[in-house]
Design brief:
six-stranded mixed beta sheet, 12 helices, 22% strand, 29 strands, 515 residues, alpha+beta
């Protein structure tokens, strides 16, 4: 269920007079508007308003030709039929927001907030801060006047408060229910977003707000509408919270599935499976063949992890043996074994190069970032490379089907893991990693999708292992090389991958329904 669309539909029904029934005995809205006009004139006489404050007030009426007209303070009349968005019920009237309200801006800058302040401090965002002083003591609607994305925020508050200088503070008259007016302005937020100006930050001019057309019913109906509207909008909020809660449950379920998978608890072990220790010998044979072909160099400090007679784990490197029990994070089934990630990989673990770009090339793009989804890498932001850069990437540097890619620099996306699945090769493009991406390519006897699941399960841990400044952290290749991998028998790796895909596909169906 799209709760955002549902909220907008409720607001739409409310301001069209279709949320609650009309009562023919209600005082027509035209009487309310006349009283407001008289009040404003009296406020000018008493000095509470200046004459210029009511110069822009207008009267909207229906002419004998059944068209809508607007009469201005100077006596001129203009047909505004094209502006009227919909028909309103009998007894309702159209008016401008500026005619039935007083709109001013806040007084404070962004630095005025104090954590231990006594009064609410409204900014242009959703969060409400605190400050030590108040400039307003009223029943108000607050509308943020600037936002980086144009997603303008609103608040309702009655009492003493202060506001940022780009926040519009809207107050109205006793003849207008402030909650109804709040709902009406909420309805206009998508329109205001489109009308906003600015490039890096979107702004709302005062005129954009004062000229908003308000469909005004009788006061009693306003109150009935706002009461019903609030009730239904609260239902939407509850549904949205439940959706968010369910999304968290799905996220946690995925993490739990991966955690069970890498511990040997997702699928049962089969005693007929060839033990993982046999894979080590196969890897050695595969390595020797690659060394003979000159594709890789012999690792003189190769790591071999084994369990001793005392049931402890040991690692042998260059003839030296040391106990690594403190490094082993959890118990694994007897048919599994521990390996360093470096020894699982047919290709050296290193980051890509710093490429130079070209406007167009039909050969190669680079993997710019890893996808947040369970599968795939995102190359939508990829760029073309120039010829000199292309020559710097030998064939084995091109990303292949099943390669695991990891974001290795930056913040926020550091440690993000993806896997490249070139199922149809329809793009005709070869992909190479840039300097922000580390590629992991496993031996044929280690299922790349199982290895990906293992890396994905440790994504948060990888992020924490980043080194460097707060603004630019780096996940070094050495950190990845020394990572311990729990390796099951090959048959079990495939069963684990299949079970993960089945479980994740069911969760994806739920996610799709939520969206």
């Amino acid at each position: 269920m799209d709760t955002k669309a549902l909220r907008q539909k409720i607001l739409d029904l409310a301001i069209r007079g279709k949320l609650v029934p009309q009562d023919p005995s209600d005082e027509p809205a035209s009487v309310l508007l006349e009283r407001i006009r008289e009040q404003k004139k009296q406020m000018v006489k008493e000095g509470k308003l200046k004459a210029k404050d009511i110069m822009d007030d207008t009267i909207i009426f229906v002419g004998e030709d059944n068209l809508h007209y607007e009469k201005f303070a100077d006596g001129t009349v203009k047909c505004i039929e094209e502006e009227i968005p919909f028909e309103v019920p009998e007894g309702w009237e159209w008016t401008r927001l500026g005619t039935i309200s007083n709109i001013v801006t806040g007084r404070l800058d962004a630095n005025a907030q104090t954590p231990d302040g006594e009064y609410p401090f409204f900014s242009c965002g959703e969060e409400v801060f605190k400050t030590n002083s108040f400039a307003f003591d009223c029943n108000a609607i607050l509308l943020g006047g600037n936002n980086a994305t144009g997603d303008f925020k609103m608040h309702r508050f009655s009492g003493k408060f202060n506001a940022y200088q780009r926040v519009y503070v809207i107050t109205t008259f006793p003849e207008i229910d402030a909650d109804y007016l709040y709902s009406h302005i909420q309805y206009y937020l998508p329109k205001l977003q489109l009308q906003s100006i600015g490039s890096q930050t979107r702004y709302l001019k005062l005129g954009m707000i004062t000229e908003l057309l308000i469909a005004l019913p009788a006061l009693d109906e306003q109150k009935c509408i706002s009461e019903s509207c609030n009730k239904y909008l609260n239902y939407c909020t509850e549904i949205a919270c439940e959706k968010d809660s369910l999304k968290d449950i799905i996220k946690n379920a995925k993490s739990k599935i991966l955690d069970l998978a890498i511990r040997g608890k997702l699928v049962p072990q089969d005693p007929n499976d060839e033990p993982a220790s046999v894979l080590l010998e196969r890897i050695r044979v595969e390595k020797e063949e690659l060394i003979k072909q000159g594709k890789i160099k012999r690792d003189k400090k190769e790591s071999i992890i084994f369990r001793g007679d005392d049931n402890s784990y040991y690692e042998k490197i260059d003839g030296e043996v040391s106990c690594i029990d403190e490094e082993i994070p959890y118990d694994i089934p007897d048919t599994w074994t521990w390996m360093r990630l470096e020894n699982c990989c047919v290709k050296e673990i290193r980051r890509g190069k710093s490429p130079k770009y070209a406007e167009i090339s039909n050969v190669i793009v680079f993997a710019q970032k890893c996808n947040t989804k369970y599968n795939g890498i995102d190359i939508s932001l990829a760029q073309y490379l120039d010829e000199t850069t292309i020559k710097r990437y030998p064939t084995d540097e091109h990303i292949q089907d099943g390669d695991i890619v990891i974001n290795s620099t930056g913040t926020g996306t550091l440690g993000r893991v993806g896997i490249y699945r070139n199922t149809d090769n329809t793009t005709g493009l070869l992909i190479v990693p840039d300097s922000h991406v580390t590629v992991i390519r496993s031996f044929s006897c280690i299922n790349s999708h199982y290895l990906y699941a293992f890396m994905k399960a440790h994504q948060t841990e990888l992020e924490k292992k980043g080194e460097g400044s707060t603004n630019q952290k780096e996940l070094k290749p050495l950190t990845l090389k020394e990572m311990l991998i729990a390796v099951p028998p090959l048959s079990e790796q495939k069963r684990i991958d299949k079970s993960i895909n089945v479980a994740f596909s069911h969760l994806a169906i739920i996610e799709k329904c939520l969206n």
